[in-house]
Amino acid sequence: MKTPTIFKRKRLGLTDYRKRLRILRSGKPRFVVRRSGKGVMVQLIKYKPEGDNVIVTVTDKSLKKMGLDVFGNSTPVSYLVGYAAGVKAKKLGETEAILDTGRYKFTKGGRLAAALKGFVDSGMEIPHDPEIFPSEERIRGKHLSSAKLKVGNFDELLSKIEVK
After folding, report:
1. What is the pLDDT of residues 137-158, one digit of tens each?
2. 9 within a domain of the structure (yes/no)
3. Using one digit for the tens of pLDDT, what is the confidence trace for 81-110?
C-alpha cells in the first residue's frame, strides 16, 4: 500500500488547508494580516481558481511613503496599517471581508486584533467580537516609551491617511 502524498506547505506547517477552504467558501475577500519581527503587512485578497488576486497591500513601510513617521510592528502601527488598508479598499469599492490570520494565533488585544480594529474603524464590514480589540490607550501607544515609537499626534496621523 502506498502512503498518501502530503502537500509540502502542510508538511512544513505553513498552510492549514481546512481553515483556508472554510474561508474561501464564504466567497468574500480575505483580510490577511501578517507580522514579522520588524513590521506588519495587511492584504485584501480575492480568490480566483488561477491564483489569488491581491487587491490592496499596506505595510508599515508604505505608511512611511504616505508621509507618516511610524515604523515597527507595535499595536499602534498595526492599527494604522489596518486603517490605511480599509481606506484603500473602500476607494476600490470593497465593503466586506473575512479575517485570515493564517497559522498565527489570535490573541485578545494583540497586534492582529489592532489591525482588525483599524480595518473595521475605516468603515469595512468584517465579522468580529468587539471584546477582542485592544484598549484605546494601547492603540494610541501610551503603553510604549517614546524612544520605541514615533507616533506624535495620533489623530493627525489618521487624518493624513484619510486624505491620501
Report:
1. 888 877 776 654 555 567 777 7
2. no
3. 999 999 999 999 999 999 998 877 888 999
- Parallel, antiparallel, or unpaired: how do β-strands 53-59 and 40-46 relate? antiparallel
Distance CA 31, CA 2 (A): 39
Q: Specify the number of domains making up the chain.
A: 1
Residue 34, class by beta-carbon neighbours within 10 Å (0-12 exposed, 13-18 middle, 19+ buried)?
Answer: middle
Domain that holds residue 35: 16-163
Residue 97 near residue 29, CB atoms below 8 Å: yes
> What is the pTM (predicted TM-score) of this model?
0.86
Please give the Cα distance from 52 to 63 (Å, whole number).
Answer: 24
Task: Please indicate, yes or no, if residue 8 is contained in any of the structural domains.
Answer: no
Q: Which amino acid is at 96?
A: E
Per-residue cell: 120? 473595521
Residue 3 lies in a domain: no
CATH number at residue 157: 3.30.420.100
The secondary structure of 98-153 as a DSSP string is EEE-TTSPP-TTSHHHHHHHHHHHTT-B----GGGSPPHHHHTTTTS-TTT-----
Measured N-to-C along each axis, helices 75-91 and 154-163 cross at an angle, to the nearest 10 degrees, of 20
